[in-house]
Amino acid sequence: xxxxxxxxxxxxxxxxxxxxxxxxxxxxxxxxxxxxxxxxxxxxxxxxxxxxxxxxxxxxxxxxxxxxxxxxxxxxxxxxxxxxxxxxxxxxxxxxxxxxxxxxxxxxxxxxxxxxxxxxxxxxxxxxxxxxxxxxxxxxxxxxxxxxxxxxxxxxxxxxxxxxxxxxxxxxxxxxxxxxxxxxxxxxxxxxxxxxxxxxxxxxxxxxxxxxxxxxxxxxxxxxxxxxxxxxxxxxxxxxxxxxxxxxxxxxxxxxxxxxxxxxxxxxxxxxxxxxxxxxxxxxxxxxxxxxxxxxxxxxxxxxxxxxxxxxxxxxxxxxxxxxxxxxxxxxxxxxxxxxxxxxxxxxxxxxxx
Length: 354
Ligand code: AMP
Ligand code: MG
Fold this sequence. Notes:
binds magnesium ion, five-stranded parallel sheet, single chain, alpha/beta
């Protein structure tokens, strides 16, 4: 069904509660509302209502076995949703909530299978964003919300990105401007004895280990940055093609000088074939590339600016006429692992070492 999508601008410093109430009313009426969090924009619905959750899958074109994350606004709201809260999970919640960490626990009866993609576990997060928290509180239910993009596309970091994908499919978007972090939450599974990171994010393995006081493993499928042939990731969503721009993307790693030389040589070859070429570099390197469209993802030594711009840059290329995009790799810093996890998938594991 086609509906008009209303953009509702909200100032996160000074929240207009009437606007939040309008959006919360849609949630109570089993409709979808897109809203900003500190990581990316979410596509929210009442997470305890199977009919409402089903609409998320339909709007995104999301496979039904890819579970959703339940968002809460107060720590005690987790209790009715889970069977038990292990000590280690409690410590992580106390340290990192509200914040970019999603935890997986055994689900209680009240969480429908439609929300968990048929699993007996449930993913829960308390976002650190005043608009998200206000919406959850006003709605009076946990809000199931995956990233507000069409399945497979880069996650939205601006309300305009949500509009590109969801216009005509949802009644409203709460526009809180560009998000802060820019990549999705760290997912950590506490449903087994040994905690395990299923998706890397801003909260790192070191940060978690320090707080929970025990070793935290990383899902082997995530560690393997090459083809994950034969290793099924434990977060079902991580097995799908993801985050991808429309043009093919190829990653090039090596010394900066070699990478620039290699990419410029490829540009020349592609031009001879009549193709147009995009390049993703940094503030320090963009002026050296002879591509048709060259974009900077941020500063070389600032993994935070790189994470912040990653999806915006990938989406910008969808508005350009390029046949192929070459990108440097951005492995350094605390966020390097999470950035490369997303970028590697966006490139369909296409990577050249020079
Ligand atoms: P998104 O909100 O689009 O970032 O997607 C949510 C991610 O959380 C997907 O990769 C899901 O597979 C993962 N996820 C949600 N619930 C669970 C769960 N119970 N067990 C493992 N992974 C989960
Ligand atoms: Mg997503």
